[in-house]
Amino acid sequence: MTDETTRRRVLTAIATAGGIGALGGAGTYAVFSDTASTKATFTSGSLDLRVHYDRTYVGDDEQTDSGIIDGQGSTELPGYSELMTGDSGQLKFCFELANNPAYLWACGELTTSSDLADAIEATVRYRDQDGTKGNPIGEKNRNLSSVFSALNDGLPLDSKGRDRDAGKQTAYEPSSSGETTGPCLCIDWKLPDDTDATVQNKEFGFDLRFHAMQARHHDGTNNPCTGD
């Protein structure tokens, strides 16, 4: 009997130039086969995760961009430069999941840190695919440093848009090709108007990864972020 597990990863490394970066995701799928003496072969289903992203930056004017992250290796998106007090934005990630239900996890970390990451207020929340605001995850109006400290420990995502501990979340259902499933994950951020001038000419970067764990083989408690 052979038991083969293959990990498919899409990682976005964030490089910023004095501002906030963009994010990406990671997917995981598993295929198991079993051949008996009768030559019969049994093969499980598979997973395929693609991450649809939208970025919005509001400063003197509004900038938006979007795309889909899919494939091997890492994808790097440009950051924002010359942030000013009062500037804000949103990073939204929606999930296209093929074939089988899966537990989704978000993992992240700051790759470089500075006072700027400490100064930027951020709230992590669910949003519907049309952008309708959903429930916050964790505390509101944290700074980005504390957000990524929490993401470093792993964040289980709930398909019903609730803030749930591992094992209490609901798996995401598969979607049609090109369509997304369940609520999206958003990071809303703002550099407050009263930010101290000491953050001038500072920069930081971060990574964000997403994992899909096939629901038929997991109960939602297995944290893939600890093995990144």
Provide tags for this entry.
single chain, 228 residues, mainly beta, 7-stranded antiparallel β-sheet, 5-stranded mixed β-sheet, 6% helix
Word description of this protein:
Keywords: Membrane, Transmembrane, Transmembrane helix. Pfam families: Peptidase_M73. With 228 residues, the chain is mainly β. The chain contains two helices and 14 strands, in the order E-E-E-E-E-E-E-E-H-E-E-E-H-E-E-E. Strands 4, 5, 7, 9, 10, 11 and 13 form a seven-stranded antiparallel β-sheet that branches. A five-stranded mixed β-sheet has the order 6-1-14-8-12. A hairpin with a 3-residue loop joins strand 4 and strand 5.
Question: What is the gist of this entry?
Answer:
The protein is mainly beta and 228 residues long.
Set down the secondary structure blueprint.
Elements: E1 11-15, E2 33-35, E3 41-43, E4 48-58, E5 62-69, E6 74-78, E7 88-98, E8 102-112, H1 115-119, E9 121-127, E10 133-136, E11 142-143, H2 144-152, E12 155-157, E13 181-190, E14 205-214
Parallel strand pairs: 1-6
Antiparallel strand pairs: 1-14, 2-3, 4-5, 4-7, 7-13, 8-12, 8-14, 9-10, 9-11, 9-13
Counted up, domains total 1
Largest sheet: 7 strands, antiparallel
Cα-atom Rg, whole angstroms? Answer: 19 Å
Q: Would you tell me the overall average pLDDT?
A: 78
Q: For the terminal residues, how far apart are their CA atoms?
A: 28 Å
Helix percent band: under 10%
Q: What order do the SSEs take from the amino end to the carboxyl end, as H and E?
A: EEEEEEEEHEEEHEEE
Number of strands: 14
Q: What is the strand content?
A: 35-45%
Region (Disordered): 154-180
Transmembrane segments: 12-32
Keywords: Membrane, Transmembrane, Transmembrane helix
Pfam families: Peptidase_M73
